[in-house]
Amino acid sequence: MVLIPAGPFLMGGEFDEERPRHRVELDAFWIDRFEVTNQQYAEYVRATGAQEPGFWNKSDRFHSGEKFPRHPVVGITWGQAKAFCEWKGKRLPTEAEWEKAARGGHEGHAYPWGDTPDHSRANYEGQGTLPVGNFPPNDYGLYDMAGNVWEWVADWFDPRYYEKSTEADPLGPESVQEKVLRGGSWVDGTGPNRVAHRHWYLPVAQYKWLGVRCARSAAGP
Questions:
Q1: Pairing between strand 29-31 and 215-217?
Q2: Which residues of the chain register pLDDT less than 70?
């Protein structure tokens, strides 16, 4: 895990539900350096008897299962992602934590490295996952904060939440219908998603591009 320092950052972007940009103050927290892998999830399934992800060991197309240990786990619901993180003594990151971590200490850029999509920095070919850590990290030392898989976070989704968000350690709105996902890339492979991009699915969704990375408060879970 990587320790993300306490302090403010500018959250949000220029499109629709990314607005308005607003200052957020976060306590220090830890976040996984890599997306959760198939190998890690297989250990969890063996240890707990938990349900396997969708597509698990059923098709090489989605790189899901123990044949692909270093690929990110996919096909997990929000509940499965949450349960895995809790088994590891961690939790899902909040949406604000995820975005601060993805920005790598920089503000105002579309991607962790700047404003232009770059095939040498992220997996967004539209042809499935690649092993975690296959591209350079951002300036916090975190890998695949753009491209590869979309990652579940803790928050419920409200397109207008930024208009009423608290400044200190926001936790998202009260229960709505969908949960937020961050990271990943456009399904058609035209580019990685911006660090401010917000996507959302019902928490029971189980698709080939949905994965997770875990977090932990600096003071504890």
A1: antiparallel
A2: 187-189, 220-221
Q: Say if CB 183 and CB 202 are below 8 A apart.
A: no
Domain ranges of the chain: 2-217
Nearest Cα to Cα of residue 52 among 75, 33, 70 = 75
Report CA 126 to chain centroid distance, whole Å. 18
Are the beta carbons of 185 and 119 closer than 8 angstroms? no
Closest CA to 68 of 166, 137, 148: 148
Domain covering 2-217: architecture: Alpha-Beta Complex (3.90)
Q: Which two tokens stand for residue 46?
A: 């063996």
- For the chain, how are helix, strand and coil distributed in percent, rounded to 5? 20, 20, 60
Residue 3 main-chain phi, psi, to 5 deg = -85, 120
Q: Tell me: the pLDDT tens digits for 9-60? A: 999 999 999 999 999 999 999 999 999 999 999 999 999 999 999 999 987 8
